[in-house]
Amino acid sequence: MSEKRVYTFGNGKAEGRADMRNLLGGKGANLAEMNLIGVPVPPGFTITTDVCNEYFEKGKEDVVNLLKDDVIASVHHIEGLMNSKFGDIENPLLVSVRSGARASMPGMMDTILNLGLNDEVVKGLARKTGNERFAYDSYRRFVQMYGDVVLGMKPVNKEDIDPFEAIIQKVKAQRGISLDNEMTVDELKQLVELFKAAIKEQTGKDFPTDPMDQLWGAICAVFDSWMNERAILYRKMEGIPAEWGTAVSVMAMVFGNMGDTSATGVCFSRDAATGENVFNGEYLVNAQGEDVVAGIRTPQQITKLGSQRWAQQQQIPEEERAAKYPSMEEAMPEIFAQLDALQNKLEKHYHDMQDMEFTVQEGKLWFLQTRNGKRTGTAMVKIAMDLLREGEIDEKTALERCEPNKLDELLHPVFDKDAQKQAKVLTRGLPASPGAACGQIVFFADDAEKWHDAGHRVVMVRIETSPEDLAGMAAAEGIVTARGGMTSHAAVVARGMGKCCVSGAGALNIDYKAKTVEIDGYTLKEGDYISLNGSTGEIYAGEVKTKPAEVTGDFAELMKLCDKYTKLVVRTNADTPHDAQVARNFGAVGIGLCRTEHMFFENEKIKAMREMILSDTVEGRKKALEKLLPYQTKDFYGILKAMDGCPVNIRLLDPPLHEFVPHDLAGQQTMAEEMGLTVSEIQKRVDSLSEHNPMLGHRGCRLGNTYPEITEMQTRAILGAAVQLKKEGFNPEPEIMVPLIGIVNEFDMQEEVIRSTAKKIFEEAGVEVEFKVGTMIEIPRAALTAGYIAKKAEYFSFGTNDLTQMTFGYSRDDIASFLPVYLDKKILKVDPFQVLDQTGVGQLIEMAVENGRKTRPTLTCGICGEHGGEPSSVKFCHKVGLNYVSCSPFRVPIARLAAAQAAVEE
Fold first, then answer.
1. Are 479 and 500 in contact (CB under 8 A)?
2. Half-sphere exposure in the Cβ direction for 892 (13 Å, CA)
3. Contact 134, 280 (CB under 8 A)
4. Mean pLDDT of all residues in 105-110
5. Residue 555 and residue 149: Cα distance in Å, rounded?
6. Is 267:339 a contact under the CB 8 Å cutoff?
7. Which neighbouring-strand residues pair with 460?
8. Catalytic positions
């Protein structure tokens, strides 16, 4: 651990720099870097992330003692640069206290502004600035934030509004005013007293008056917020380890609430929703930063273009816009010019889209933060490809800038144009995060979770969101807020999650207690359907039909770039011609797993299948199989044709037979009539097939070896379809896979049936088709004896679902009963059925590939479990020398990007 716990910055100097984000957090490292490159930043200091870990190991008291001297010295450092004194009643210095982990976690942890005020200092601040209104506005904000964050003053019930907001509304109602900045000095003084009394009543705690006590309370509260519920949930969603910790940055306050020449805002060097290369953002005159982000006041646009676009969406005429809602570019042209120049400088410096916070204090611009901005999947791809074309980054960096899992957003359905035209538009808000969403209205985060878990699609409708709503936002299809702009909490978090979001829909009249929302006389209640267009801000009544997305434009360019670098190719898991075509359109170069059993569940097929299983003679089974043959041939014909010229790996029948037989009386009666048997005879046969542990029972190659006629029929269907296609001028490439072998003899017996059947088919047809016979390695013994198996098998496909199940001894169907506890207790870091266990299961794969290729150097190896579309698992497959991964059609682009990244990271 670094012995140095506190790093100072200010006046163009800094003890830290941008590449120290692990120690100083993203915010602390960038504050230091901005100082070093000449961006105006208020002076301050950062307490390292290591101290956060010490805080949870040693406790509050020990850490405060360890830090005391450094923090006092650093406060003196700020005092010297700001020419004011912390806690002084004549010339007071105020500070802000902010969190900052190494990974951006917008809104998940706590911030406190205006720290250092008390009943005496506030009078000194009023005298010093000659602005009593500003002083008491700052004081009431400080008491409000400190009361919430440090002293725990929160709403008692979910239907209640914030207790401080309730007091503010009461005070405003006495005079019939609606905006916070319309309150008089006396009303602000009254708020401070009412706030303190409410804190004492609800929490039993007195508000601290000593500025140093306030500072320690705030620093410890920021560390505590690393372990709050929403931060833990966000880390879980984003895969951020708890041991990273958060840093704490303490900075001199600069004030955006000192009057009409002061302002505060948030801006982006490019559009975080679409990726368009336009500077954009929002600001509020005479306000503080939390006002913009919290979404309590809907802010104005920074650029004239942004303001005109906003007015168009809101259907506000240009004259009214210019008069009432001017952009910063029009209202503060000099400040805007400085801001524009600095945002350009920062993007060029970091070679990435920047998300910046700033304050203007009486005509002077200060930067409070810059970070690589959270963005949607669409924006991520566009920004990476644009920066590549602009020469700002190279091809490998462009690939690494894209997060594989975020591509999923680009594959989500979009509204069908015709259905959209006919839909009833209820109102418009701001297009905060693109996409199409449809679901039932819920008003609270916990309800969103419950409804989602019960299988409902939900849209969360809120007055505004707060970080406490994170779990509900994750469960919802989309989010709507009545307040807040494009940089509010709802907008920023929704973009980071890739959720569709419409913010600032002012026509929404939400009643949390009645669970209703009224829009221009049209009332909707909880459970009613609405649809959102996050790209236009439109909200529609009811469900609007969607259609699948397509790979075009920058997305297609990115995929081409992947192909240039990748060594590991991507196939798909597909059981129908439709799925095969979808995957091929997404760039799959073959099928890595075609499950034949999924083809048997249609009406006539299932009857013939059941007849085959329930027959107790070879003749009976063969008769039923003859009925199945044309169905199977037709299925394989369609799939091989859709994947013409690409390998199609078809797994022979795998699941236990009891899955196919009728367990209900009606189904059993149908089969009795079909087979000329009694119902009780059918029931006896069904009972005889039941097994105590079917996943380890009579399935896979064991079926084919006890009933070789099944393997024979399936071979006839596969190769018969291939022969037919070849005669028609196509180029089928079938691969026949023997599942679940544990011993090479099992494979030998099945291969003999396949090869002898093939010989007969080719002789009958007078045409031969090249095909391979391989096996699925999904039993640990098969992985350990792979060298022997490769003497006969022409390829290996690792079935990582079963291989994980058997290596861990966990049942995939029952793991849910203990997995959450294992993850909480850190026994497991991740669900091994979602992310490949590289140490255990991975070792078996690596060993099997190595030993298999010693026997057969040309052995093709791939994986076809669910892990084939999970980025870290794909990268592992590249590392151990697999030829391909196979995944579901909609994960093909994700796997292609992960495979390309694996190649460039070598």
1. yes
2. 29
3. no
4. 76
5. 42
6. yes
7. 442, 479
8. 489, 864
